[in-house]
Amino acid sequence: MTRLILRSPLARRALLLGAGATTLLAGCAQGAEPLAIQVYKTPTCGCCTKWVDALRAAGLKPSINELEDLTPVRATYGVIDTLSSCHTARIGGYTIEGHVPPSDILRLLQERPKALGLAVPGMPIGSPGMEMPGAAAEPYATLLLLDAKGATRVFARHG
Fold first, then answer.
1. CB under 8 Å to 95, separation ≥6 — which residues?
2. Which terminus has fewer CB within 10 Å in the chain: N or C?
3. What residue ranges do the domains of the chain occupy?
4. pTM of this structure
């Protein structure tokens, strides 16, 4: 009986229309609420503010927590000193350390690997928030943080 119903042009049209509406509504629901990201930074860091602007431009919704010392935050989330930068963030159960490109964060959330998060150690010139007019971008890697002991692997290369 199902075959008879789907052979009808009207039934096929209704099925396609329903599928299209479902896809459209799912897309609206996903786009309606930006992904929240908690950012921990010091009050005086200008490059952190520029990185937050890059997050917003990518459709993320940052909440800023200004602290004088980020060491306890990093210790809580398993970021060792050699992987640290000037700000730390949390999104979707992951830790984001440093000037990680928003596209890498979105990829992390899509792929959902078993890891602590991502890090761009230091402050590489040309990374989001570290753009310098007239300065050449430095090549850098976004690292996947595998554990709190500092194990990593390259997640993405930039520059």
1. 77, 78, 79, 88, 89, 116, 117, 118, 119, 145
2. N
3. 1-33, 35-158
4. 0.79
Which residues, listed in sequence order, are joined to residue 103 by a DSSP beta bridge?
Answer: none
Amino acid at site 44? T
Confidence label for 13 from pLDDT (cuts 50, 70 and 90): very low
Measured between alpha carbons, how far is residue 61 from residues 22, 31, 58, 87 in Å?
Answer: 26, 12, 9, 16
Q: List the end-to-end C-alpha distance of the chain, in Å, as a whole number.
A: 59
For every residue of 94-118, DSSP letters joined together read EEEEES--HHHHHHHHHH--SSSEE
Residue 5, SS3 per DSSP: helix
Summary mean pLDDT of the chain: 86
The token duo for 157 is: 């290369």
Query: 């753009």: which residue's tokens?
Result: 131
Q: In terms of Cα–Cα distance, which of 75, 121, 83, 77 is closest to 99? A: 121
